[in-house]
Amino acid sequence: MSCCNKKCWLIAGSIIGGLLAILGGVLMPVGDMIIEDKIDEEAVIEEGTIAYDNWLVTGSPVYRHFWIFQVLNPDEILNAGKPRLQQKGPYTYLVRHLPKSNVTQNPNHTVYFQQPNNAIFQPLMSVGSEEEVLTVLNIAVAAAPAIFPTVQGLLNSFIKNSNSSLFQRRSVKELLWGYVDPFLQAIPDIILADKTTGVFYPYNGTADGPFIVFNGKDDISKVNLINKYKGESTLSYWKDEYCNMINGTDAASFPPFIDKKKPLYFFSSEICRSIYGIFEKEYMQKGIKLYRFIVPSKALASPVENPDNHCYCTEMELSRNCTAAGVLDLRSCQGGKPVFLSLPHFLHASQFLVDSVIGLKPNEEEHQTFVDVEPVTGFTMHFAKRLQVNIMFQPTDKIDVMSNLQSEFVFPVLWLNETAIIGEESAKTFKSGVTTPMKVLEVIQILFLCLGIVLFLACSITLCVRRSKERKA
Predict the structure, then answer these.
(1) CB neighbours of 294 closer than 8 A, spacing ≥ 6?
(2) Cis ω on the peptide bond leading into residue 202 (within 30° of 0)?
(3) Which of 225, 265, 291, 454 has a Cα-to-Cα distance from 471 of 20 to 30 A?
(4) What is the tens place of the pLDDT at every residue in 432-450?
(5) Partners of 253 in beta bridges
């Protein structure tokens, strides 16, 4: 090969290398635009998209694991003793397995729907039968003084006539989903028509909502954000507009392109408020990169520590003048029932609540609430919603079974973990449809850029060396 030909090849190599490097550099923003356009298209809640299929009915089974607090010393408690509790569980149910109902796309880029409620017992995932009988708090008796504060003497006669007490023997199924209570049966229909009670009664056959959420068609940054709940854009349970805001999604998914520096907001009808998670860590699950966001202690802190929570403080005496932490008073959204929500075992709550009973051992690994999202699409791949249901009651000399209690109680009834994790098949589908194309595009970008730079430098340096030698010659 002649010297001229070699020189021409080196020049051509430099040009090609430069072009490859430029192409690789150009592909980076262009590739990002391609990915963004594809995500914007598939994240819309509209028939035919990946997001719609997973939104309509969850792609992975959602389970509710319940742990019931069995009361070990009911007679001692009635005589000023400290409660000794033993958690029994899990008792597991498949939930959220029914598709959303009455789905209607609206002209203003929102979608209307209801979420049917149904729970199916899972014996193989449970420690025993749902017919297992435990000694538990009598929630009807415990709640009655708060619901009917002016007729406590009359309540006392109803309790005695029905042979009821502050504690009772009930099956797991009855406690969770409802039973006809003898004490409630003793109350005249004119005062109370429905004689059935249960922690989650009524549940099966009902529906949450209706919800109206943005479908993301006109603005993908708003996809799945709740626009209205039960026909209203704000709540009416709390003291001011801040606490009554409906922020975020239902946590099943979030707008794409998650920023780990910003909190994720989500609304839960069960806790009657919006709450948020903060970034904790990045990790891999079934080959998919996820961001974990946890509900921080600050979200349930006292107004002294977190002034934003001032409007959740509704009971000055119980909250120790709003200095207590870790419990949420739900009476305003539970029809006056003295239901107080917390994290399991009073995690992040004031120590006096933990010390009020024997048998609680709060720890973050078991009792923390978190949501794991894929950062590009915003799809939730794993979550654990952990909540504890407590009933507040106090000593009263007008009701015999409450006359000798040692103190006021926020009494733990049960805690639950509603959780789901992406399955192997769903993970494969997601990777083949989303993760793999992104990785291939990224590899091509890097390959072109690196190959181009190497080829350009190698040919350019060789040309410079040849020219130097030619001049010396």
Answers:
(1) 277, 278, 280, 368, 369, 370
(2) yes
(3) 454
(4) 666 555 655 555 556 555 5
(5) 379
